Amino acid sequence: MRVVLALVVGLKGHNLTTDNFFTSYQLGQKLLEKQITLVGTIRKNKPELPPATVNIKGRPVLSSSFAFTRNTTIVSYIPKKNKSVNLLSTFHHDSKVSDRADKKPAIILDYNKCKGGVDTLDKAVSCYTCKRKTKRWPQVVFSNMVNITQPESSTGRKTTKRSRCQLCQKTDNKTGLVCDICNKFICKAAF
Q: Which of 11, 24, 51, 187 has most Cβ atoms within 10 angstroms of its Cβ?
């Protein structure tokens, strides 16, 4: 909570989107005092979640369960059998559900619109990581910093099309990476 509050110093009238690592009821209330609203996924083990949103037994697929306080909304949505997604919002104050086939609540649709940057970074970091299992915290911090800066310095971009690497001698080496400079398919080994 302290990290988020330090990052929003000077902001007013914005909507903040967070993932389940940062989202909590207390953070939402602190941000409302600063006139900043919050939308974010929330972990199922948080004590502030009502039992009706955590317990999914007997609830049909594509159903939503809402819980309201004076200025906070919590929604539990079931996209698949035995799986639920919980979100907390201080921006939304109703139980509006879309007319689409998946019947997603408006809170989830707004969250999905705004979460792109975090997911893009997580996806890029997961492809190429320098993390190693260690108990030394400075090494963990350093490897995380390198992982976060690595996607910015990459010379290749991912495509949906796959082809053989044009720089390697191997004939079976298929890749989806394309060099930004020469526009040729390159594999991790040639990178």
A: 24
Q: Which helix (H) or strand (E) holds 66?
A: strand 64-68
53: tokens are 């949103």
| Same-domain pairing of 13 and 97 | yes
Last residue of a domain, one of 58, 89, 114: 114
* CB-CB contact of 75 with 54 (8 Å): no
pLDDT, tens only, 138-157: 888 888 788 777 665 555 55
Whether residue 54 is predicted with pLDDT greater than 90 in this model: the reply is no
Dihedral sign (CA 103, 106, 107, 109): positive
The verdict on 99 and 179 lying in the same domain is no
Q: Round to whole Å and give the CA distance between 130 and 120.
A: 18
Percent of the chain clearing pLDDT 90 (strictly above): 35
